[in-house]
């Protein structure tokens, strides 16, 4: 027997078995998950998604590196701070009517994605903004860094109170600090003075921007990660939430006199939508003149482009750490934002770009179908079951969202054929096919200082998204649409019943939309 030939064949067979075993091990290895969640970042705030003049090369790269959902939405909120409800839905995989009240407190019976992944051996990390209760924060993550939003808030991206991770979940005000530049330009920690003035008064000369701080914390985590266990990171940026501050170099990219207003720009909203006077709407003067709206849009795009640069550093850090190949990247925003659309400034509405239309991207090396733009309807609370199925992790019984994996895997075209939206007791919307119906009511409201009052208007709107994606032409009064409106009203009421849209399901809610409709 030819010994040399036998040895060569045996070696080749051993290598085949070895490579096969390695491939099987890699196949069975749990993927890391990086969830990038931005604040008040509307769908059209990413250039690649809507073609607007905002510069987002790194987010554009994520769109090319995966699957972007063109019709992803926030369902709604029962508070002007819509990000509270949005984040509760993301964390729990439950719709807005299934939360505990407005979503600030998360009951232990509502399993968070952090808890679900911990049970499967994951290290779970939170960095940045937290808008829920301390107990939920503590039970959801094994570690954290640069926690913000725990009571102290100075309305200033350059002077932001942060907390180190506290396993006990206390995050006492006296433990907060901010980051400043010393005389040598080095970033140092500093106790927050008791007489600290609320902003926005900071500049890039004071200290690093929140986006820089949060992004760098993520890069450090990747660089120093030594565990054999997979990780899930919830990376929650505060930008582009107001105050819309950015370093001067980014502001210079958007000269105010060269800004192009969106198709839905208006001087003033045409009627009282029920919540016209609150802090978001008071960020700019009425009427929203072209100059006012151009300035707001310039600031919005500047802080987005600065945020995009930090996200680029995060992805570069992930790749440098060697973790990119086995990491699913999910990027989304918590709400839309008007910034002049329909004469509004905030997100306390259920127009698409102004309030509920958000980016949703699944990207990275593990996504094989690249550069896909999918038109299926999705909510942000579908992220939880989707990442569970992607990582082969049991979906908790408390989760009611729908996994998007059948869509991502090209098994089905959709997991739902409509969307439903609610804002407090004043607004409801129903979207199906190309059409969206919005119904407004004049309803009672309550304020601790002012007591009970009446606000809003009884108005119906109908928009065709195929011809009018910016919702500029109300079609509700055309006789030819009468039957369509009646059918959509009928289906909207059916959805309300199925979803549990009644005040009894929102603890603390005093008024019900349907009592005034």
Q: What would you say about this model in short?
A:
The chain is an alpha/beta fold and 517 residues long. It contains 14 helices and 16 strands. 29% of the residues lie in helices and 21% in strands.
What does this structure look like?
Helices cover 29% and strands 21% of the residues. The protein has 517 residues and is of the alpha/beta class. Strands 1, 2, 4, 5, 8, 9, 10, 11 and 12 form a 9-stranded mixed β-sheet that branches. A 5-stranded mixed β-sheet has the order 3-13-14-15-16. Helix 7 packs parallel to helix 9 (290-320). The longest helix is centred in the middle third of the chain and has 31 residues, at 290-320. Mean pLDDT is 93; it is low at 1-26.
Helix/strand/pairing class, anyone? alpha/beta
- Strand coverage percent: 15-25%
Give the rounded overall mean pLDDT: 93
What global shape is seen?
globular
Question: Major sheet: size, sense and barrel closure?
Answer: 9 strands, mixed
Distance between the termini: 91 Å
SSE ordering: HEHHEEHHEHEEEHEHHEHEEEHHEEEEHH
Strands, helices and their partners?
Blueprint: H1 3-28, E1 32-38, H2 47-50, H3 57-64, E2 66-73, E3 76-77, H4 82-92, H5 113-118, E4 123-129, H6 134-140, E5 143-148, E6 177-181, E7 187-191, H7 210-224, E8 231-236, H8 248-251, H9 290-320, E9 327-333, H10 352-356, E10 357-358, E11 360-363, E12 372-379, H11 383-390, H12 405-408, E13 418-423, E14 427-432, E15 435-447, E16 451-464, H13 482-499, H14 513-516
Parallel strand pairs: 1-8, 1-9, 2-12, 3-13, 4-5, 4-8
Antiparallel strand pairs: 2-10, 2-11, 6-7, 9-11, 13-14, 14-15, 15-16
Helix pairs in contact: 7-9
